Amino acid sequence: MTLLALPLDARPREKLLTRGPGALSDTELLALLLRTGMPGKDVYALAQELFTRFGGLAGLLLAAPDELARVKGLGGPAKRAELLAVLELARRAMGQQLRTRQGFDSPGTVKHFLQLHLARQPHEVFAVMFLDAQNRLIELETLFRGTLTQTSVYPREVVVRALHHEAASVVLAHNHPSGTVQPSRADEALTRTLQSALALVDIRVLDHVIVAPGDSLSMAERGLL
Hints:
Elements: H1 12-19, H2 26-34, H3 43-54, H4 56-61, H5 65-69, H6 77-99, H7 107-118, E1 125-131, E2 137-145, H8 155-164, E3 169-175, H9 185-199, E4 204-212, E5 215-218
Parallel strand pairs: 3-4
Antiparallel strand pairs: 1-2, 1-3, 4-5
């Protein structure tokens, strides 16, 4: 079923234009973007399937292009490209909003920001948020890629970048593409090593956040710092 097959007052485009976007449900908004379903599955069912598959709107925002390509009904490059473009704009808008906050004042805010930037990475990366004295973000940098161990993350490089940004504190972060966010003993040892290295130049480690698709963990909240 296409949206044009619906009664006029049930079409999401007309509903949006006459009553405003707030009048539409998440499913209706996504259906408006998708426009058509597929044989045996109307556009609303396809929209709902996407939300179910990816765990709602937040999960859909973190969906990778190859994951969307595996959804039957999104195989066409034009439809998939439009959806990916809208999702990327939404991610960038959310990231920009978080960046312009007065400061990263809670682990929840930090985890949300890092989810947007790291959760979709197909391989492990190690990143650092460099913060000023008011916990405002100076820069988020990905410093290392690949399997992370204590020997593949170089404390000297982290210290050099922190001094370059004149950071007062940092938040360490890495992702687990496997899906688990439980810190390993190597994660804990690496955190202690970086704390000691940065303390020598009077820079604090506020947290070490581990992110995975749909989940995140703050080592500070767990009392591991």
